[in-house]
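Researcher: Before we compare anything, I want clean individual predictions. No alignment, no superposition, just each chain on its own. First chain goes here; please echo the sequence and then give the structure tokens.
Model: Echoing the first chain and its structure:
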Amino acid sequence: MLSGGQQDWTVFDAAWYFKRYQDVLTVLGVAGPQDCEAFYTAHGTVLRHSPNPYFDEDWYLTRYPHVASAVVAGLHASGFDHYCTTGLLTHNPHWLFDEQFYARPLAGQASGGHHDYRNGYDHYLRVGDGQCLAGSWFFDPTLALASGVERQGQLGPYSAYVSMVAPQRQAGSPLSVYFDPAWYVQAYPDVAQQIAGGVWRCALHHYLANETPTHYNPNAIFSEAFYASVNCDVAEALADGRFRNAYEHFLTFGLKELRRPSASVDLEAYSHHTSVRQDLEQGGCRDIFAHYVLHGGKPTQDHTFLQESEGVARALYQEMCRIKAPLILADRLDFSTGSPDLSVIMVAHNLFAMTLVALSSLRANYAGGIQVILVDSGSTDGIRQIEKYVRGLDIVRFDGNIGFLLGCNAALEKVSSPITLYLNNDTELLPGAIANMLARFQSEPGTGAVGGKLIRTNGLLQEAGSIVWRDGSVQGYLRDQHPGVPEANFVRSVDYCAGAFLAVRTDALRQLGGFDTRYAPAYFEDTDLCLRVHAMGLDVVYDPAIVIMHYEYGTSGLISGASMIARNQVLFRTTHAAYLRSKSLKNDRMTIRARSCAGVRGHILFVEDRMPCRFLGAGFARSNDIVHAMVELGYQVTIYPVFISDDTRDEVCRAFPDRVEIMHGRDMAGLEEFLKDRAGYYDTLWIARTHNIDRLAPILQNCADTLAGCTIVLDTEAIATPREYARRVLYGQAGEQSEAEALRHELRHLFMVDQLVAVADYEKDVLKESGFQNISVLGHQQRVRGGQPGWAARQDILFLGALHDEQSPNMDSLRWFVAEVLPLLAPLLPEGVRVSICGYVGPDVDLSAFRQNPAITVLGRVDQVGPVYDRHRVFIAPTRYAAGIPFKLHEAAAHGLPSVVTDLLARQVGWTPGQDLLCAAASDPQAFAQCVAQLYNDSAVWHRVRDNARERIQREHSPQDYRTRLAAILAPSGRSSLGGQQVGGFVVDDPAA
């Protein structure tokens, strides 16, 4: 025991040992605690005794069979000896503590700070336990205290629990929401008998320590058999020994991916309940599975504004306007300007308070110059004297109510800026609306008109752009839907946008003569105007970054709506007959096609593991480049993830062009329904990564009719078998399955697709040798950066790559470099040279061992990699097994940073060692260290390698060549194999293999 009552897992606890093993010790003549340590050293290790309550020897040797073998072989005196000398950073000491679980949120504290903590367990016993922090999935200190565990002195709940020496001889009280002891002993009565007989301490002890862990379920909600059977990657991981049971995989990975824990539990559907999301956002539960358990799978009833009637919402809005009006009057709005960025036309017929709110919102929304032309259309309230309260208005006044159309046309003569905005006086602009609208015109010169997302006062959409049908009828897209749905949150070219907020280029507007007066007094005038903008060869754009609250119909009452709509629809249909012939007949199933007007080259559904943000590395940067290039080529792209992303919607949206439809919050469970809802919409289904064709195979079968005419492309990204087989050989886990057999298994579903894409020529050869044809190669694109610092202005060594999990190639390469190469570098480099580790770090990855090394700086994920490349002198890629082509190597070269790599990567990238890079065998750490030292110390070598690598990037990976290759892949080449017209052009020896 340490001073102050803090516990130490490294020491022998004689008093506890004597109590724990008193029956055995008494028989063997051990008189008291004073004789225990000698007995433990001589005999206790053989008996699998634990030296203290914080380390469970018997469990440790059962959990880690390789350690038990090492003890038998005499390499370690005991499991405890192994843990103290070798396993303290990678192994768990007790069935109730998980080093990785604890290190995730406390990595920084557990590896540094004021105290010199040896590992996360050290930190937990000395700090975390006393603060009632959880040390594993299966020990919640709050539940433990509620279940009757009592603190002993200064011991925390965990220390108090594990220090108890008397067996409970019963199921035990719940210690975690993830394990149900009462259910467990009912489901497994033989376990209850063993607990009563003293074999196990409690039900949880049996679950975590038994020798057949896949035979037992932890609760009524999770099924080992189901989870392993429906997830092929889990079955393979269990066979490899990477997980103790399927539940361990579920808690580590499957839960975040919202995989089904059992046939009857759909976590993805459960996550869509508003109350569930609110509880999780507010910290009410650790995760969605815990929420499901605690609520019995029945979320509380949603009570939101959606249940409020439109009338109530409107009344509340009007009342709020009346409350705001005196404050606005006191503020003295001012629109005085000499050179406006835009001109706003607003027509008002009474509604003084509402008009003030609209003007106040406009002024607060944009600090630049705004010309406001207010048309007083026969008002009888405060609008008559509005210029007394608002400075800088251009007033056009009429004695009677002439309506929106004629009022706007009268105001057009006063417009003095290049952009004219029609804005209703029953609107409020959300932040950024005006700036985003002006930016759209500036970034897309072919845009003639821009509209935004209109939200009604009850919080539901009025429209996200609007549709024109062949009969001349119109429809606001997604009316009555939630504004946050993915379909409403990407930029589209549309038929028209409503006149409540409609910005038009002034020169085009004047050329068209404003609104067509034949539609006076109202209805279809905005639709007609947008179609005439289209006829000029200009685009009409819906931009979801422009958000407007719209009271809707606030200025109506002048006319009978139904009769005018009927009259003007006939006029509209006659006037635009040619345009309407290109439109679809009105049908709900055609809405998805009708939501965008013609102009895109085709529609692509892009399926990836998760949203392919660049910072994720591991092929996601390449997928991100492909999506960007697809948009540049004129395609409409929808990204659909196999697993729900942990990243926020805003973070994901920033990673892609704003014209990409991002199905955030969706996953594979809803893909089949999604495809059927969009039958016939997609021209190309692009599936990223070979393992995803396995996941999608049953969906493709069930949606064969839906996908008729759709070209199915599989981008292998990287063929995994060679990499995985190399890893197994490296770790002595090759098993009985040959590499050829594993490759056939990986490629077994490729017969379903029309076209294959490989990342490199050598992977194309692998596919051809496996019997496939119609294979294209699409590698990486890079643009050489100019103006990077030279050799003398740089220092330190950089490792940059994503660390998604503990078994990833990058983690292996880092461990090898730090353990084998870094110690050899110290005498070869100037004093003080450090190694930086940069890149995305998965939530389950523990970098505490690297953080403790004084020669290493852990940067983690950074927003901009350019400055990181610019300040380092040497890039290292010590990869021992990999697939595809290393994107990071190309990126480093494009940034002017030369590399030292293993011979494996040199072969994959096809570059010349000694000229384009330096390399050494992954089995020769001394040679790798010599290469790093040579590149770091020799300016001439550094500049030669850097210049050659940059020249290769410029010659082989230009964005223009990349787009040309992608365009050839996407060019129509026949009907889909699922449509029955061809079989993808493949020659497959055994499609069923």
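Researcher: Okay. Second chain, same rules.
Model: Second chain and its structure:
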Amino acid sequence: MNDESGGEVADAAGSAEGDGDDTVRIALMCVRNAGRSQMATAFAERERDRRGLGDRVEILTGGTDPADEVHPVVVDAMAELDIDIADREPRAITTDEMATCDYVATMGCSTLELDPAAGVDVRDWALDDPHEQDLDAVREIRATVESNVVALFDEFSDPAEGETATDDERSQE
């Protein structure tokens, strides 16, 4: 099953097309799924493509109380990098879905607790909420999100596996 961005999305049971023993599952979540987690998902999809990991990395996103739309200022900030998230819709994500992941990154707005026995590496990126912030503030949040996503991918993949940009190239995109 594919999401609107063309990426693979798992069903609630946690299975996905092409599941294999070496598939890395990442969930990027916040309460509203309308800002930080949408940026993180777009950067994760880009990083997956750059590294040639389309068959090895599955990305889930969602919120515990999804908004009606992605924040317009977030859409504008991502458009500056030629990343179009205008058609994305916030969605719900369940604890069951997250429990099937290798990594779960919350954006600083969650008290998420998963069973430690599930073996999920949960991180809280403690990001400011871009809702009702000006574009300059959202740009700063965007830069931190991008950096966090790249660092996460660096932990489980070799940059030499696919085409990767240098930090200078990333900042110019």
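Researcher: What stands out in the second chain?
Model: The chain is about 30% helix and 15% strand. Additionally, The two ends are 29 Å apart (CA to CA).
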